[in-house]
Write a structure and sequence with these properties.
- Strands 4-5-6-7-9-10-11-12-13-14-15-16-17-19 form a 14-stranded antiparallel barrel. Strands 1-2-3 form a three-stranded antiparallel beta sheet, with no helix packed on it.
- It is mostly beta strands.
- It has one domain: Lipocalin (Beta Barrel).
- The chain is built from one helix and 19 strands.
Length: 389
């Protein structure tokens, strides 16, 4: 009896236990994660390194020179990779497809491309820059006033020196037309008169060698003819030059000293020198005589950077002319300018500027005839705008 009951209950107990186990397994399946869909943690963007701010004028030539001084903006050429004072590349803007920077960098005057083995090749462009600029100085129709309109165009070419793309020889042919209005000719001002136009036609050579990490140089030579083309003589041909040494005490601080040779009738040579201090990415103080300039970063508009600045310069020029009655003369125009302006630069380093200024200590010198020997002119205002690309 007991054995028969045990034979009936034992299979029933085994069936109940197995059924409960299968039911438990069936209930667990819906809450379990499928084997083909592993849980992945939420993605977090990898922090990108902060790129240093780009100084669009990473060279010692920030101030605006006199119109006929041998001067060209140094190309934005960074030292070789690994140099102690290597300048940063152009920072990428938001939304760039290369958030860590382009695989190659475009530089004014030079370009880079990536070889198939991953190395970077750096070449110098033959045509470095094309420049246009116009200057207007206000003047009234009077005995001691002079209005000037000046338009200038130039093209800069780069030639490698000792096969080093970082220090090319820059050759710049340029041409400028100067329109004069005034002064009114009268016995009261010594019968001072000027032709309606004079011209500058020149060839400029500039070189910025890096002699050491701490020692650079700024060398320039310009020659050509400055005349109204009615009177052309040996005095129409001028040779101008500059030579400055640059001591780099740190990536932010340079000391410059040298001379400018102007080849004018009144002033043949000017001492040049001072300091170039860049305390941070927002300030750039080029406190160098005779063309100081202090800039402050303003805003970014799209891919362009804007700066505001104050500057000073020694302006003017010298020309051979033919005066009323066919009299030949050799004249100087000299002035001092205080300027306030804005300048911008894009990622491709196309540049532009617009500025207004106060012009004072103006004078005309008639060195050939001495009639008159000197004429003081009224102070004036100036507007100048230009573009380089």
């Amino acid at each position: 009896m007991h054995n028969r009951l045990l034979n009936i209950l034992l299979p029933l107990l085994i069936a109940i236990i197995c059924g409960n186990h299968l039911l438990a397994q069936r209930v667990q399946f819906p809450s379990a994660a499928p084997v083909y869909a592993p849980i992945t943690p939420p993605l977090t963007p990898t922090p990108q390194p902060t790129l240093p701010s780009f100084d669009p004028y990473g060279n010692p030539l920030l101030g605006t020179p006199p119109g006929d001084v041998p001067y060209q903006v140094a190309p934005q050429i960074s030292p070789p990779v690994g140099a102690p004072f290597a300048a940063p590349g152009v920072p990428q803007q938001g939304g760039s497809v290369y958030p860590n920077g382009l695989p190659y960098q475009w530089e004014s005057g030079a370009y880079q491309y990536q070889n198939s083995d991953g190395s970077i090749a750096r070449l110098q462009r033959f045509m470095q820059q094309i420049s246009f600029e116009h200057t207007w100085i206000y003047g009234e129709d009077s005995l001691d006033d002079l209005a000037i309109n000046r338009s200038e165009a130039a093209v800069t070419f780069g030639l490698p020196i000792f096969y080093n793309p970082d220090t090319p020889l820059l050759l710049t042919p340029g041409f400028a037309a100067n329109w004069f209005e005034g002064p009114v000719t009268s016995a009261a001002n010594g019968m001072a008169d000027l032709p309606p136009r004079v011209y500058d036609a020149y060839l400029d050579a500039a070189w910025y060698p890096r002699l050491a990490d701490w020692l650079h140089a700024d060398l320039g030579l310009r020659t050509g003819v400055w005349t109204d083309f009615d009177h052309v003589s040996s005095d129409s041909i001028r040779i101008l030059g500059r030579g400055l040494g640059v001591l780099s005490f740190s990536p932010q601080f340079d000391f410059l000293v040298g001379v400018w040779y102007l080849d004018r009738n009144r002033i043949r040579m000017l001492p040049a020198g001072g300091i170039h201090w860049r305390p941070n990415s927002d300030w750039d103080a080029y406190m160098v005589f005779p063309n100081p300039k202090i800039r402050k970063r303003s805003i970014n508009i799209g891919s362009s950077q804007w700066w505001v600045y104050v500057a000073g310069e020694y302006g003017g020029g010298r020309w051979t002319i033919e005066r009323i009655g066919g009299v030949e003369d050799d004249i100087d125009y000299n002035d001092i300018r205080m300027l306030f302006g804005f300048e911008w630069e894009t990622q491709t380093q196309a540049r532009g500027h617009i500025e207004v200024g106060y012009v004072f200590d103006r004078e005309l010198l008639f060195d050939g005839t001495m009639m008159p020997a000197k004429l003081k002119l009224d102070d004036s205002i100036m507007v100048r705008a230009g573009v380089d690309f």
